[in-house]
Amino acid sequence: MTYHPKSDFIATIMARGFLADCTALEDLDARFHRETVTGYIGFDLTATSLHIGNLVQIMLLRWMQKTGHRPITLMGGGTTKVGDPSGKDEMRKMLSVAEIEANAEGIRQVFARYIRYGDGPTDSPLVNNAEWLDELGYIAFLRDIGKHFTINRLLAFESVKSRLDREQALSFIEFNYMLLQAYDFLELYRRHGCILQMGGSDQWGNIVSGADLIRRVEGAEAFGLTTPLVTRSDGKKMGKSAEGAIWLNEDRMSSYDFWQWWRNVDDADVGKFLKMFTELPLEECDRLGALGGAEINEAKVRLANEVTALCRGAEAAAAAEATAREVFEKGGVGDDLPTLALDPAEVADGISVVQLIVRSGLAKSGKEAKRLIADHGARLDDAPLTDPGLMLDAAALASPVKLSAGRKRHALVTLAE
């Protein structure tokens, strides 16, 4: 039987493909229908930026706020010191407090694009779990919280079971992560009246444990909701590419490259991605996703513009599209391509084209750059590049040169003034 939700929030996330599992869906829907619900998603601070794999969760929080409810973006300043074992084959490297704080600052910039912060009834408080975890007394925690968890149950968690099944080490500090995440939910319930934790499908066990802890300790009802693992039509995990993570922050990835990633998604992904990562009406998402032939390319441009405008701003989206049209339709250079500015002293004796390909981000290593040239995938000012030993001097770089890897990835190399 198909469930017909009463609340705008549940109706929206079901229609747009955000809902995988939910505890007591009808009861949660009723709460959303009759009151302002506070819910949260936690984000560990393992890098200075989130990537597009996190965008599902960010959009979920955005829709929660847009439908009249209060989202909490929980910064994992405390849990990042431990490390979430979910989906990991090995223990994460430990970060210093200074690194974690720097990462928090970078991630805040992402949230501010999507979530409204403040003190209003649906404004989001930006909360860091270091507020309570750093002050936690270990013995008191074991006595008050640890007694509600059995080793049998923790060993049954998929995040633990999969590591042990592969005979990969799971440290005691990671084993504690599940208890800490459940405790976060309890603290957010006490401090902010939060009754809902959301997250990816790999977090289901942790989320259910938190809701159960609130029931045991406070005698109150709490809920959990997870999103599906979003994969591309080729089966690869969302957020990764051959070139690495697709970062949300400008300082980790240029707006042009970000825009290009969305412009170049597979035809079969356009409709799904429009529903999940833009705010276009569902009917328009279906119409654009159903286009074929050359028309689907304009649908991809629409997808790239909408996503980039949300994440980087309308001006960045417009500039990226203008550059793409200049590069591809007119054969020009474009004003918004990623640019490598070299100090003239660096090229006094010449610099190899292989080094330029690597430094401009078109290849990860000299070996990869040479293979790109050997496979006829590299171009210099739109001319095929065939000599991996080619050297460029200051005269050759007096005007910007365009390097290309394949048909879709480009960068400029110029001399700094």
What's the CATH H-level superfamily name of the largest domain? HUPs
Number of domains: 3
Average per-residue pLDDT, rounded, comes to 84
Helix content: 40-55%
The CATH class assignment of the largest domain is: Alpha Beta
The largest beta-sheet arranges its strands as 1-6-5-2-3-4
Biggest sheet, open or closed, and with what strands and sense?
A: 6 strands, mixed
Question: In terms of structural class, how would the helical and strand content be classed?
Answer: alpha/beta
How many DSSP H or I helices? Answer: 18
Shape field: globular
What is the CATH fold-level name of the largest domain? Rossmann fold
Note poorly predicted spans: none
Q: How many strand elements?
A: 15
CATH architecture annotation name of the largest domain: 3-Layer(aba) Sandwich
Measured distance between first and last alpha carbons? 67 Å
Strand content: 5-15%
Radius of gyration: 24 Å
Describe the structure in your own words:
With 417 residues, this protein is an alpha/beta fold. The chain folds into three domains: 8-227, Rossmann fold, CATH 3.40.50.620; 254-329, Tyrosyl-Transfer RNA Synthetase, CATH 1.10.240; 339-415, Roll (Structural Genomics Hypothetical 15.5 Kd Protein In mrcA-pckA Intergenic Region, Chain A). 44% of the residues lie in helices and 14% in strands. It contains 18 helices and 15 strands. The strands form four sheets. A six-stranded mixed beta sheet has the order 1-6-5-2-3-4, sandwiched between helices. Strands 9-15-14-11-12 form a five-stranded mixed beta sheet. Helix 12 crosses helix 16 (314-329), helix 13 runs parallel beside helix 15 and helix 17 packs across helix 18 (366-374). The chain is globular. The model has no long low-confidence stretch (mean pLDDT 84).
